[in-house]
């Protein structure tokens, strides 16, 4: 690409400088109770959601809007005490047969034994990508932050800002990636007695019911999607956190943390389960484990109007003309690969 060089000034934009904190949603504003009647409660003026499970039913909450790419943060305090057989969740899912889904599921345990954080990713109807973790703290003693970052390059799951899992876009080698179906956000609690705790070996102690998980500080920085169009088309409707999450990748510190979690806390990884995939591991498992990506923005400001003077010749949405033609941004991606 070439520009009238006299009128172009190139700047490297440090994205981190632009971040501003988004405020927590109220549960009333963002969605509604979807099942469980009085077992689900929105309290404290919409800031706290409690979901309970008893021997008759679980309960759930879902967002009103659907989103295509986002950063979601939710603080969760899990069912305390003997929670064996209970499953609390925080997940995203699209509708229909070939649905996409990104899951955090919290499998309870008998008192004093560790919870399992069960994660999975479905793309275009296909799942079977489980990874499970024991965390480094007691998730029932206090609220901890669980984050989903979903952008066109990757899905990243974080716990207290520590990445625990990254699923890269590997469409180039034929692995479907969720990038065309908008998803609803869900929080639920349900009865997983028949499988959740050591394959159903440990029964739920229903005398402890109701079992209650609490959710608060729900923050949505997302591209809202309705009637086929995304709110992220223009800068007026996209806040800086959403914008940053759209290009978010691992920095080297996060990469270190991810490796630590995977070494010390991961208790199951589909990518090492050869018995389960006798015909060969899924193709993404043979890719470099993590793509370590650095994004660089080049920004060109000009006295001319970029709409009038130049046209975008390649790169799709990596090249953008903004501010009524006054600003051109170009995104280049360098991928540094580290092997497992
Ligand atoms: C469910 O729990 C309630 C309250 O503890 C109890 O009265 C009832 O018998 C239980 N129902 C079943 C089917 O176990
Ligand atoms: C429950 O605790 C046992 C013993 O520490 C552990 O092996 C198991 O993975 C835990 N189960 C779940 C569902 O977290």
TrEMBL record:
- Recount the PTM note: Contains at least one intrachain disulfide bond essential for its enzymatic activity.
Entry function: Catalyzes xyloglucan endohydrolysis (XEH) and/or endotransglycosylation (XET). Cleaves and religates xyloglucan polymers, an essential constituent of the primary cell wall, and thereby participates in cell wall construction of growing tissues.
Residue span of the signal peptide, if any?
Answer: 1-24
Do the record's keywords include Transcription regulation?
A: no
Q: Which Gene3D superfamilies match?
A: 2.60.120.200
Give the enzyme class.
Answer: transferase
Similarity comment: Belongs to the glycosyl hydrolase 16 family.
* EC number from the UniProt entry: 2.4.1.207
UniProt protein name? Xyloglucan endotransglucosylase/hydrolase
Q: Does the keyword Metal-binding apply?
A: no
Quote the CDD domains the UniProt record gives.
Answer: GH16_XET
UniProt lineage? Eukaryota, Viridiplantae, Streptophyta, Embryophyta, Tracheophyta
Q: Where is the active site?
A: 101 (nucleophile), 105 (proton donor)
Entry keywords, A to Z: Apoplast, Cell wall, Cell wall biogenesis/degradation, Disulfide bond, Fruit ripening, Glycoprotein, Glycosidase, Glycosyltransferase, Hydrolase, Secreted, Signal, Transferase
Give me the glycosylation sites of this protein.
109
Recorded hits in SUPFAM superfamilies, A to Z, give: Concanavalin A-like lectins/glucanases
What sequence ranges are listed for the domain GH16? 1-215
